[in-house]
Design a protein that fits this description.
Helices cover 46% and strands 16% of the residues. By secondary structure, it is an alpha/beta fold. The protein folds into two domains: 172 residues, Leucine Dehydrogenase, chain A, domain 1 (Rossmann fold); 154 residues, NAD(P)-binding Rossmann-like Domain (Rossmann fold, 3-Layer(aba) Sandwich), CATH 3.40.50.720. Strands 9-8-7-6-10-11-12 form a seven-stranded mixed β-sheet. It has a five-stranded mixed β-sheet with strand order 1-2-4-3-5. The two termini are 19 Å apart. The structure holds glutamic acid.
Length: 420
């Protein structure tokens, strides 16, 4: 590909992972660029009026990675550091994730370079609606279906659904997933990513002979994913000994009171000022001894400098791309850390998004138990496939998961052929 519009460290990381997986699969060279390269990207300017009367223009991105297996699917991120390359990498990972868990989707991701905490509710609504308004020519219930990601939530999805519905002239709940239940959302979606990650972590604990009731977990990130995972671990009897968010980290080897932390965050929007544990930096937290370490925030937090220092048995990648390729090599060399790769570990979110989309299209709704039991079946199946693939190719668990997703997309493209 003779283009450098996506140039970024995260995009390079995703491309290198693809190249390795394609080598493992001995993929036909004639297919490789087709499968790897994002299909299309949009950059839109989103002008909004702030409460002060000032006009600010935000830049919004969306990358639709491939459209060979159905609509594209993936979250929308509000974070000050979002750029096109990061969004493209995240869209690529969504493609492999959806294919790995057999969803009829290609991958996509969107973002706006903004810190949502600096906006009032009113400004946030204007920005979310304006972004959807600008994206209308490029999305659709069978074209591209957005969802929450870092910095976005159910309310934002409701505003976006309303904006799109006003445009088509009738309620179109299937245009986004991760909506509030009262606006066409699904039971179980809010907890799907975190709970799915905790569920998989528990199955791997069992494989290693670690009793969940005597295990400890450290979670980096206390947003939707991290906090829902924490709740699930508490239910499993696993002790949550460390949590963190952008404001800092809290640690207590005897266990933290998660309910109290959740209450604090509900009142104060972050963990800042919580007195439920010893204060550490985010970096220090990652290096504390524990059975499970769960990064549930940004990419590239386990890197060449700290990979040799982390002290866990299982690294549960609830975030997308939390481990750099250099760190991956170090962990493989160490051989004492089982990595549950992101595309498997956090796939619960998009799986239940798929359930939400199906329910909206059929106007029929499932109970929470139905949703979660269907989710666990898919997670178990994907895990079994990954373990088999790992055995078959003698590769890492990440390479196994990625190569499964990638080979499925490659096969769909090969069968459909190259339109002249
Ligand atoms: N943002 C989530 C992810 O990275 C969920 C995407 C979705 O539900 O479409 O997997």
């Amino acid at each position: 590909m003779n283009s450098n519009i996506y140039k970024s460290t995260v995009f390079d990381m995703a491309c290198l992972q693809f190249d390795r997986a394609a080598d493992i699969l001995q993929m036909d060279h004639r297919l490789r660029e087709r499968v790897k390269t994002p299909k299309r990207c949009m950059i839109v300017s989103c002008p909004i009026e702030l409460d002060t009367g000032e006009i600010v223009v935000y830049e919004g991105f969306r990358v639709q990675h491939h459209l060979s297996m159905g609509p594209t699917k993936g979250g929308l991120r509000f974070h000050p550091k979002v750029d096109l390359g990061e969004v493209a990498a995240l869209a690529m990972w969504m493609s492999w994730k959806c294919a790995l868990v057999d969803l009829p989707y290609g991958g996509a991701k969107g973002g706006i370079a903004v810190d949502p905490h600096t906006l009032s509710a009113n400004e946030l609504e204007h920005l979310s609606r304006r972004y959807m308004q600008e994206m209308i020519p490029f999305v659709g219930t069978n074209v591209d279906v957005m969802a929450p990601d870092m910095g976005t939530n159910e309310q934002i999805m409701a505003w976006m659904m309303d904006t799109y519905s006003s445009y088509v002239g009738s309620s179109a709940p299937a245009i986004v997933t991760g909506k509030p239940i009262g606006a066409g959302g699904s039971e179980g979606r809010r907890e799907a990513t975190g709970r799915g990650a905790a569920y998989l972590a528990r199955t791997y604990m069992q494989d290693l002979g670690i009793a969940p009731q005597s295990a400890t977990v450290i979670i980096q990130g206390f947003g939707n994913v991290g906090s829902e995972a924490a709740k699930a671990f508490v239910e499993y009897g696993t002790k949550v000994i460390g949590i963190s968010d952008v404001s800092g980290a809290f640690f207590n080897p005897k266990g933290l009171d998660i309910e109290d932390a959740l209450e604090h965050v509900a009142k104060n929007r972050s963990l800042a000022g919580w007195n439920g544990g010893d204060s550490l930096s985010n970096e220090e937290l990652l290096e504390q001894p524990c059975d499970l370490l769960m990064p549930a925030a940004l990419e590239r937090v386990i890197h060449a400098e700290n990979a040799s220092k982390i002290q866990c048995r299982i690294l549960c990648e609830a975030a997308n791309g939390p481990t750099t390729n250099e760190a991956d090599a170090i962990l493989l060399e160490r051989g004492d850390v089982l990595v549950i790769p992101d595309v498997l570990c956090n796939s619960g979110g998009v799986i239940v998004s798929y359930f939400e989309w199906v329910q909206d299209l059929q106007s029929t709704f499932w109970t929470r138990d139905e949703v979660l039991s269907k989710l666990y079946v898919i997670l178990e199946r994907a895990k079994t496939k990954v373990e088999k693939q790992k055995q078959r190719y003698g590769c890492s668990r990440r390479e196994a998961a990625l190569s499964l997703g990638i080979s499925k997309v490659a096969e769909a493209k090969r069968l459909r052929g190259l339109f002249p």
